[in-house]
Amino acid sequence: MKSVFASVIIVIIFAGSYFYFKNNDSSQNGIEFAPLDFSKSESEPTPSAREVPKGAREYRSESYEFSLFYPEAMTVKEFKESSGASTVTFENIKGAQGFQIFITAYSEAQVSEARFAKDLPSGVRLDLNTIVVDGATGAAFYSRDALLGETREIWFIHDNYLFELTTLKPLENLLSEIVGTWEFVEQ
Amino acid sequence: MINPVRSKKSKISADLPEASWTSNGMKKLFKFISSLVIITLVFFAVPKEALAAVTLDTKLNTNADNTVGPATANWSFTPTGIPTLITVHVSSARGGDISGITYGGQSMTLVIAKDDGVPNRKARIWKLESPPSGTQTVEITMDGNVAYVIETIAWTGTATTGATSGPQSSGGNAGNTSTPAVTSATGDVVIDTLVLDGCGTAITDGANQTEQWDVDGANCTDGYGSTEPGGASITMSESWAATFFAHVAVNIVQAVAGGAVDIGRTLRLFAGFHIKIFNGKLKIY
Fold first, then answer.
1. ipTM strictly over 0.90?
2. Which of residues 49-108 of B touch A (CB under 8 A)?
3. Distances (CA, A) of B159 to A53, A152, B129, B260
4. Which of A136, B77, B94, B255 could share a disulfide with B52, CB 3.0–4.6 Å?
């Protein structure tokens, strides 16, 4: 009887977990991957017409109209946030590499102090520099997060969206390389 | 030997027939399992954040033709409920533009703007989140001559910050259809605003769209707007006899119950992992 009871409990826990994670599935509709087909990449153009470097994959968002290349060892996850915002994480835990993109609708021409305060609870903004990402002017700076520690931030506004790219400070060169592949794409 | 007093099973066995024990035990087990199932389903299957529905509370159309150059105009607007968002939808023509709008004395924010190819016809959507309730004055400032058709809308059930998202637009000199696709979500509402050089041109909505206003203003300024319930991607389709046009659309974001909507960015990078720098090398585990 005990074994039957234990089995039932296990089934319930699994069923519950399924419903829980089903309801918390944060995948963002409308964002599509364009995975690299290495058998074709060196000789044929990808569907996006961007030539993907060897060892990389293309991430393309139809909703937010941009494309970038990231190391193929990274796993991409998409989360739908409140207010229609989205977060995309690119992570390679074993290789200790990763970054995230937070995207939110934003109608201002420049990032307001209120927005900085909202998204940077630490208030830390060091070595602020102006950068340009495929024609979009933005800011690069260092910040600090309670869990991540020191971070590298690249923020820019394009077509009524605010893009906030974040990585760990030791990975700033990786982020710079990836930002260098960023292109806004017209649908 | 089992002591029939100390052994629970033996004691029960001694008191009740075997068949009755099994039956009662199974009933108890069934009740227990049923309770667990119900609790589990309620706890896990109900969404953690119930969402409030976006509702168009009140709308008011105003149209006029200003030919005296820079000027202001205003009107009174009374929402039925307590609005969480005010949007002002502008369809205008002539050389001037509406350079600013206030609602209850508070400046509104331009969400999306599109001109036709001249440019002459202009489509705009302005917003004010968390507006003052009750009767308020809407005041527009024009930087030149403007013939306008303006719809003022009060919404309830929207987010109070980040209440609009995914604005899209199209415009041109000789189009006869426009289909901007807006990223949205179930429970949100997508609204569009169209201006035509039309003099009463008939306009046809796409499927699932509901016409909210259709006003033929002065100087052949046709102003039109419709809504559609939100979904993953909503195409706001309008068609007409070819002419100059500008078309804008935006998603109205629903509120999360409890008011916690735009809490800012969440850092999801390496969530659940430990980060350390060991001997100068980054470790994540």
1. no
2. none
3. 41, 30, 8, 9
4. B255
